[in-house]
Amino acid sequence: MKPTAILSLLLALSASVAVSGPAIAQSGSAKTMDMKGMDMKNMPMDNMNSGSTAKVTTHQATGVVKAVDTAKGTVTLAHGPVKSLNWPAMTMTFSVKDKMLFDKLAIDKKVTIDFAKQGADYVVSSVK
Ligand SMILES: [Cu+2]
Prior knowledge:
Elements: H1 2-55, E1 58-69, E2 74-79, E3 90-95, E4 110-118, E5 121-127
Antiparallel strand pairs: 1-2, 1-4, 2-3, 4-5
The structure holds copper (II) ion.
């Protein structure tokens, strides 16, 4: 009777250890996984935020229209310094993707343009 009672006691003890052991390990690993999941969620969101703010950087230049090419969609402008880009005054060609803007671009006309870098091009977004 006695050895059996001890055996069943030991079994009960080892069983409770076996149950509580993995239970602790599981809750521990679950906490670690939550923290990893939060880190991973936060990092792409930060990247997305910085990407969206860098996406639209518009600059302004004032100059005289030197040439217009509606077929190529370009305008050549002798513009003054552009502080936001650290540009000196120069004559250069901008991309004009919105064909409606050509109504405001006439040779020898003084204009103020808003433009943004898109890939290798500087694209005019508005003409005043
Ligand atoms: Cu320029």
